[in-house]
From TrEMBL:
Its EC number is 6.1.1.10. GO terms for biological process: methionyl-tRNA aminoacylation. GO terms for molecular function: ATP binding; methionine-tRNA ligase activity. Belongs to the class-I aminoacyl-tRNA synthetase family. It comes from Eolophus roseicapilla. Its main location: cytoplasm. Transmembrane segments: none annotated. It holds the Pfam family tRNA-synt_1g. The keyword Cell membrane does not apply. Keywords: Aminoacyl-tRNA synthetase, ATP-binding, Cytoplasm, Ligase, Nucleotide-binding, Protein biosynthesis. It is found in: Cytoplasm. This is Methionine--tRNA ligase, cytoplasmic. Residues 34-311 form the Methionyl/Leucyl tRNA synthetase domain.
Length: 313
C-alpha cells in the first residue's frame, strides 16, 4: 500500500515508459516473456457472450495487464475448424466444409474486433502450417513407438458409402430408450454411448440403416507413458500451482489407468494421416486441434519455435 501511495504521489511522469515490442513479437533475452492463448473457439457457430466471457475475455484482460507491466507479451488465438461438427454444419447449410469455415471464421474475427479483444494474432487451423506440424508430431510419435494399431467396430452406411462419425448416427438409447439419442451421448439420460450400442440406428444423412463393420485405426499408446507421467505429475503438483479441481481430475485418470486413445477418424474433413494403410483417414480433432496453438503462432512468425520450444524462457 505504501509503494502504491508513493507511486501515486510521484505522478504519471515517474512511470516507466511503455514497452513497444517489435513486430512480430518475439522473446527478448533478459525480459519477462509471456505467451498467452485462450481456448480455440469452434468454427461452426456464432460466438455469444458466454463464449467470450468463458475464455477470450479473461485471457484478454490478463494480456492487457501483462503489457501494462511492461512484460513482453504475445496473445494468440484462432478458430478450430476440423472435425465432424464442421461436416454436420456444412450438410445443414448446403455448403462445403471449407465454405463453412470461411464463413464463420470471418464472423468470429469481426465479433472479436468489435469487442476490441487485443489478439496479436487471430488465426485458424485449416492451414498448411497445421498440416506440416501435426504430421511432424505424428511421425515423431510413430518413430518413438508411441502408436499402435487396432480394429474398431463402427457403423457404416452403405447408401452413403462411408463409416459414420458419432454425430451422423441417431437411434434409441440402450439405457433409457430415448429415441433420439446421438452416436456418442444420450441427451435425455446423459450417458455416453458407443454408436454400435444404439438400438435401431439410422444414418442422419440418408435415413438408411447402417451395418456394423470393422475398420483399422491408430491409437496413442498412453499406458506406455503412464509411469513417466506419474513421476512428472508428482513433481509438478509439489512445485506448481494446480487448482484442486485439476488435481482431482488428473488423479482420477491416473487412478483408473490410462487407456490407448484413438487418434484417427474415417472422415474427409481433417488433417490427412501420412501413413500407408491410413491415407483415407484424418486425425481426430482432439489430436489435431491443440496443435493449432503452434500452427497459428507459426503463421504469425516463422520463428514460432522461440516461443514454443524455449524451456529457459
Amino acid at each position: 500500500i505504501a509503494a502504491a501511495a508513493d507511486a501515486w504521489a510521484r505522478g504519471a511522469a515517474a512511470l516507466p515508459k511503455p514497452w513497444q515490442p517489435q513486430k512480430p513479437v518475439l522473446p527478448v533475452e533478459g525480459m519477462r516473456n509471456i505467451l498467452i492463448t485462450s481456448a480455440l473457439p469452434y468454427v461452426n457457430n456464432v460466438p455469444h457472450l458466454g463464449n467470450i466471457i468463458g475464455c477470450v475475455l479473461s485471457a484478454d484482460t490478463f494480456a492487457r495487464y501483462c503489457r501494462l507491466r511492461n512484460w513482453n507479451t504475445l496473445y494468440v488465438c484462432g478458430t478450430d475448424e476440423y472435425g465432424t461438427a464442421t461436416e454436420t454444419k456444412a450438410v445443414e447449410e448446403g455448403l462445403t466444409p471449407q465454405e463453412i469455415c470461411d464463413k464463420y471464421n470471418a464472423i468470429h474475427t469481426d465479433i472479436y474486433r468489435w469487442f476490441d479483444i487485443s489478439f496479436d494474432c487471430f488465426g485458424r487451423t485449416t492451414t498448411p502450417s497445421q498440416t506440416t506440424i501435426a504430421q511432424d508430431i505424428f511421425q515423431r510419435l510413430l518413430a518413438h513407438g508411441f502408436l499402435l494399431q487396432d480394429t474398431v467396430e463402427q457403423l457404416r452406411c452403405e447408401g452413403c458409402q462411408r463409416f459414420l462419425a458419432d454425430r451422423f448416427v441417431e437411434g434409441t438409447c440402450p439405457f433409457c430408450n430415448y429415441e433420439e439419442a446421438r452416436g456418442d451421448q444420450c441427451d435425455k439420460c446423459g450417458k455416453l454411448i458407443n454408436a454400435v450400442e444404439l438400438k435401431s440406428p439410422q444414418c442422419k444423412l440418408c435415413r438408411g440403416v447402417p451395418i456394423v463393420k470393422p475398420t483399422q485405426h491408430l491409437f496413442l499408446d498412453l499406458p506406455k507413458l503412464e509411469q513417466r507421467l506419474e513421476a512428472w505429475l508428482e513433481q509438478s503438483w509439489a512445485t506448481g500451482d494446480w487448482t484442486a479441481n485439476a488435481r482431482y481430475i488428473t488423479r482420477s485418470w491416473i487412478r483408473d489407468g490410462l487407456k490407448p486413445r484413438c487418434i484417427t477418424r474415417d472422415l474427409k474433413w481433417g488433417t490427412p494421416v501420412p501413413l500407408d494403410g491410413f491415407r483415407d483417414k484424418v486425425f481426430y480433432v482432439w489430436f489435431d486441434a491443440p496443435i493449432g496453438y503452434l500452427s497459428i503462432t507459426a503463421n504469425y512468425t516463422d520463428q514460432w519455435e522461440r516461443w514454443w520450444k524455449n524451456p529457459q524462457q
